[in-house]
Amino acid sequence: MCRLFLLTSPTYDGVVSDIKTIAEVVHRHKIPLIVDEAHGAHLHYSKYFPVSAADLGADIVIQSFHKNAAIYDSDGGASYMQ
């Protein structure tokens, strides 16, 4: 029995998953969706970027600002979406 679904998006290579569809499927089965968005912390800041998992139905989104933003020390965050 699956208790949660963990997904990395975007990947290190920039591949972005269809989070909205994945969220709909896992939620239909009452499974929470956790997205590792460590390489996508910048997605909120421009309409030219793909939409963040935080806006597409993920229950928890983990971001890491030092991966691709102008943060010089390790920094990260997790958001619980309701």
Low-confidence stretches are none
The oligomeric state of the chains shown is single chain
**Straight-line distance between termini:** 24 Å
Q: Strands of the largest sheet, in order across it?
A: 1-2-3-4
Helix/sheet category? alpha/beta
Which radius of gyration do the C-alpha atoms yield? 13 Å
* SSE succession: EHEEE
Number of helices: 1
- Compute the average pLDDT: 83
How much beta, percentage-wise? Answer: 15-25%
Please count the beta strands (DSSP E, at least 2 residues each): 4
Helix percent band: 10-25%
Largest sheet: 4 strands, mixed
Shape: globular
Q: Can you tell me about this structure?
A:
- The chain has 82 residues and is of the alpha/beta class.
- 12% of the residues lie in helices and 20% in strands.
- The protein has a four-stranded mixed beta sheet.
- Helix 1 (19-28) links the parallel strand 1 and strand 2 (33-36).
- The longest helix has 10 residues, at 19-28.
- The radius of gyration is 13 Å and the shape is globular.
- It starts with a strand and ends with a strand.
- The mean pLDDT is 83.
